[in-house]
Design a protein that fits this description.
34% of the residues lie in helices and 8% in strands. It has 1 helix and 4 strands; from the N terminus they run H-E-E-E-E. It is extended and about 70 Å long.
Length: 104
């Protein structure tokens, strides 16, 4: 009986550890994906962006209407950050009036 209980505890510990590894892998994968966004999907030709559709369990509230299990708060609208052309040295306008040095 003691070995069965010990085996069950070992199985639960292994299961919890596997779940934790899975959770951390998924979190890392989502973080890496968000750093690579936006990207052009080769199959559909659509530019993929961050969608903000994932909610945490703590955001979950009770259902308000009959048959509704949960409610979630609405996401606030976020303005996209614009690229400042003057800060990026590759996108600066060409300077005129200087001495252009062209080499043949």
């Amino acid at each position: 009986m003691a070995t069965v209980l010990h085996g069950r505890a070992l199985g639960e510990e292994f299961y919890r550890e596997a779940l934790e590894h899975c959770r951390s892998y998924n979190a890392r994968l989502c973080a890496e994906r968000s750093l690579r966004l936006p990207f052009l999907d080769a199959q559909t030709g659509v530019a993929q962006g961050n969608c903000y559709i994932w909610m945490e369990k703590t955001h979950r509230g009770p259902g308000l209407s009959p048959g509704q299990l949960y409610t979630y708060p609405a996401r606030c609208w976020r303005k996209k950050r614009r690229l400042n052309i003057l800060e990026d040295p590759r996108l600066r306008p060409c300077e005129r009036g200087g001495n252009p040095t062209l080499t043949p």
